[in-house]
Structures are given as C-alpha cells and as structure tokens.
Amino acid sequence: MDARRKDNQGRTICPSCNKAYFPKLGERDPNTLIQHQFPNATPSEREELVTGYCTKCQKGIFTRDPSENCRVIKHFIVKKDNTSKGFSYDQAVNWR
Questions:
Q1: Which of 19, 22, 72, 77 is the least crowded, having the fewest Cβ atoms under 10 Å away?
Q2: In which domain, by residue range, is 71 found?
Q3: Helical H runs in 1-96?
Q4: Is the domain of 51 the same as that of 84?
Q5: H or E segment at 86?
Q6: pLDDT by residue for the chain (96 residues), tens digit each?
Q7: pTM greater than the 0.85 cutoff
Q8: Are 46 and 84 found together in one domain?
Q9: CB-CB contact of 69 with 19 (8 Å)
Q10: In this structure, are strands 20-21 and 5-6 parallel, antiparallel, or unpaired?
C-alpha cells in the first residue's frame, strides 16, 4: 500500500516535515511486496516508498532516543485525534 502524498512535480511530501523529495528507489509496483521488489534496499529506503517519511524524520520516529527529533514524536501525539490524550508530550519523550 502506498500512503504517500505527492506534489504536482511527482515528488513525495514527508507527512511530518513537509519536505518534498524523490525517493532514492524511484517508484514501486503496488502489486509486488516491497521486500521482493527491492530486496537489497535498506528499511529506510523502503519506508520512503510506503509511508513517505523522509530519512531525517524516520530517525526521529524509529530511534530509541526521542530527543533526536522530538518534533516528530510531538506530531504523532497531537495528530492522533488533535489532542494529547493517552500520553503527555513529556511522557512520550521520556518513554523507554
């Protein structure tokens, strides 16, 4: 499944930072598992094609050190339902 947004030039738009970029792997065949289509690609490169998150924002999302990119974590807390129900920002940042 391709959940990416694109601009009028065909560039992928990162849902976190709104950076427009062309994914390193190009485009994908939606009828083929991405692991089979790009078996030698890194998980980060494949993630660009699936979700659209740029490499920098992926580091903030998937790192065990949330201080590296707290803006991304805050994005997920607030974007869930436009409130901070469940976890406070401080709880998420300090989660281990």
A1: 22
A2: 64-96
A3: 34-37, 43-50, 55-62, 70-79, 89-94
A4: no
A5: none
A6: 567 899 999 999 999 899 999 999 999 998 999 999 999 999 999 999 988 999 998 887 776 554 554 444 454 544 444 444 455 555 555 554
A7: no
A8: no
A9: no
A10: unpaired
Tally of domains within the chain: 2
**37 and 84 share one domain:** no
Contacts of 28 (CB under 8 A, 6+ apart): 2, 34, 37, 38, 49
What DSSP state is assigned to residue 96? Answer: -
Measured CA to CA in angstroms, residue 19 lies from 26, 47, 57 at distances of 16, 15, 10
In contact, 12 and 58? CB cutoff 8 Å? no
If asked whether residues 3 and 49 sit together in one domain, one would say yes
Do 80 and 50 belong together in one domain?
A: no
Q: Which residue has the tokens 């089979």?
A: 36
The answer to whether 53 and 16 are in contact (CB under 8 A) is yes
